[in-house]
TrEMBL record:
Identification of the protein by name: Calcium-binding protein
PANTHER family: S-LAYER PROTEIN
Domain of life: Bacteria
Keywords tagged on the record: Membrane, Repeat, Secreted, Toxin, Virulence
Organism: Mesorhizobium zhangyense
UniProt xrefs under Gene3D superfamilies: Serralysin-like metalloprotease, C-terminal
Amino acid sequence: MANIPGTDAADTLFGTGDADVITGGLSDDTILASSGNDTVSGGFQDDYISGDDGADVLNGNSGSDMIDGGAGADRINAGTGDDRIMVFDLANGNGDIVNGGLGFDTLMINYASQAAGVTFTAKDPIAQSTLLGGISVINVEQYQITGSDFGDTLTGGRWNDTLDGGAGNDTLNGGIGNDFLTGGDGDDIVNGGNGVDYIMGGLGQDTLKGGYGGDILMGDAGNDKIYGDYGDDLLMGGDGNDALTGGEGNDIIQGDAGNDTIDGGNGNDILAGNAGIDTIKAGAGNDIISIVIGEGKDTIDGGTGADVLVINKLAGAFTAKAPTVTNTLSDGSTFIGIESYQLDSGAGSTSADRWTGWDGNDTMTSWGGNDTLSGGKGNDTLDAGTGIDTVSGGDGNDTISVGNGGKDTVRAGAGIDSVTILRKDVAGALTFSITGNTGKLSDGTVVTDAEHYTIHAGSGSDTLTAGSALSVKFYGYGGNDKLIGGAGNDTLDGGAGNDTINGGDGNDVVYDSGGANSINTGNGNDSVSIDISAGTGANTILLGTGNDAVRINYAGGSTAGKFTVDGGTGTDIASVSRSQATKNLTFVLSPNATLTNGDVTLKNIEAVQMWSGSGADNLTGGALNDTFHGGAGNDTLKGLAGNDSLYGGSGADRLEGGDGNDVLHATYNTQFDTGADKLYGGAGDDKLRINHGDFADGGTGSDRVYVDLSNQATGVSFTFSNGTVAVNSVTKFRAAESLEFYGTSGNDTVTASALNDVLVGNNGNDTLRGGAGNDSLEDGAGNDKLYGDAGNDILIRTNGNGVDVFDGGSGSDTLKFGFSSEKSVILDLANNANNAGMAKGLTVTGIEIVYGSALDDDIRGTSANEKFFGGDSDDFLFGGAGDDVLEGGAGGDLLQGGAGKDQFVFHTDGFGTGDQIVDFTRGQDKLVIDRSDFGMAASGNPGFVVGADPQASGTGPQFLFETDNGRLWFDRDGTGNNYDAELIVTLASDTTHVSTLSLSDFLFV
């Protein structure tokens, strides 16, 4: 016999062949027990446990474990978590006793070795039951069953089962839950039942029924019968001549190969027969039916509703008829009951198509060829593609597009219509103008009665004029273009070349990317973006009236181009990037300001955003909110009035916020800034961020100083005051009211202000004191001491290897653990000697609130009133004496309030697995439910049903309590079909359970 313990790491532990005792540790362990009657405990986290031969006792403990008992009569206690228990060979499972424990557990049984068909029915997990093969089971919620090679009957339960019939003519019933059902070979009958099920028929003549829920049903080979029933289902026939019926709901049905019969039923369905001679009845609802010319002589009936027929690879002539009249396609397919069409000739088609729509909203895509498209009534989308095309929109608000080829004719018709003309392949100059209701392009294209135009003009020097259009989008691309907007909200993009752009009225968007350009946006709140990557062209930008914005070389910060900007009237902002500049830039915002050495003049601009380069730059803002980025070099940045943002970059910079609530950063990256920066907040409530060697003066107002020494190895010691504080010999600040400190890798000793501070220890043996105020303190590596002092503080442990002291002090203080941790939190506030995992070596006092990690935690309280939050995974929370609040969070949690008036809090993110309360005391403890989270009304009581087998009564949110086992369920919609009831909590210990419950046991908030 050997005693084999694990560690805090992820271990692989092997048995010796004797009667071993193997204990996993705090991580994801692999335990292989070998022969012998072994006793195995997985410990924390998600373990793999194999018992091998022998009568073993296998304990999963916490975590979502995988447990294989192997040969022998084993006793398996899965513990908390969503566990998977395997019986690969039924002979190995004979005599096994399986207890799934708390969580959402799955038992996997393979009956493939049986000499005859088997009958399996999932049992209620609360009740002890014996399955075929002599396996005793309790607390197992779902099953993964593989049947024999004969005719099996397999029935799932309330949860998510996986049933595989294998060979033979099988009958599978999913029951409640989201099940995965596979019939396998043979003529199978598969019923999904409630839930969102995935159903595969396999080979043979199968009958598949989805039941309630949005199911996926796949027929495979054979002549199958597939019924979606209720819900929004996906039906796929596979090979063979299948009969597919959608039933209720908005279904998607594909016949696949074979001569299929499709009935959409009620709802807005999407139907496709695919290859073969198909019969499609869409039924009621607004359906979409797709066919491909040449795949079969189909018969289609759209039924009632506004139905759409999608016809692919349609070439030549097509004229829609009234929905009550039967129409015939070129391959012999017939259809009736269609209100609108989506017609597509197919990519690469060059046929001369002649298509006429009906009164619905039609879509036509004719690709190549000289086409004639007529939309008729309705809001149509017509794309004639390349070629010399004639397009008529008819009545309605139509969207029309014609491609390269030239000399198109577009009659937009009545309504508010949009026309797009694609001429990107044209190298010569194009001219576009509008006279009356007619727009003409110089290649012979004529457009009548359109309101909105989009023109892509090509590489020539083009002249495009909006005229009376409601709005335009003009794209000049290459060439020296002239783009003239109108009264609407236009988009004008000159592209490369020396362009002239006039926005006119409206809120226009203007782009340009090269050359020497003249831009006048006119009236409205306009936006201009111009990026010049090369050359010295002179660009003039007149913003006109309105509150405008201009961005100059924003993308790359090039020094190319010369710019003169006049903001005109209104409140205008200019964003200028010369981040590639090497010269010293100087700028002072004024009604006529010049960026010296930057070739930028800004007139009548009220606010700026500016990025300078590697020189010693001097940038000054104005009365509004300005932003300056100094880049490299020894820069001077002044915000003056307004709420400004100043970023020094590398170098020895001077930042002056002036009036307003300013943000001053000595650098972007602490690691690369070695300059001695000086920051002056001025008036207002400022935020000043400094590094090693910097100085900060908050000025007047309530200022906060950020000190980042994370790149320093030598520790510091200082106490916050309103006077001058020497962090170390070269790093100082004064006139600040609160502190945010990021420590060195040495030993830091810091006492913060009386306000709300943030202290992060980093490496080293640190001592951090929050002082008064609601502070946040974080330890880092090393042996740290954190004192929250007065106020409601948050103490955060991110490193579980030190010997730390956390004292919350007075107030209601919180202990948190870093969620990047790979260790569980094992915390005992009453006896710190028991602390382990992320709490190992931690001495805790003065803590009232604890948040666990994202892993499996064990948190135990004292006699005080405490609040524990488990977080993700499967946690154990014990309140101890006192009036405690316990919230397990996601996962299957074990909750014990202890003495006192305790509250147990539940949210919908913990649904499915369900928690367990082992000591709920009626009249004393409460179940706390968030009304909003549970979809309940702000006032009034939800439905509540109590009984041995409670059933929802009426629609709306309802709670269901089982008196024979203490399980509490929640059904979002009662008797509705959209949701199943989900388990919230079981009120039971190992020996007894709460036998009744009332609304007085709840607290709805």
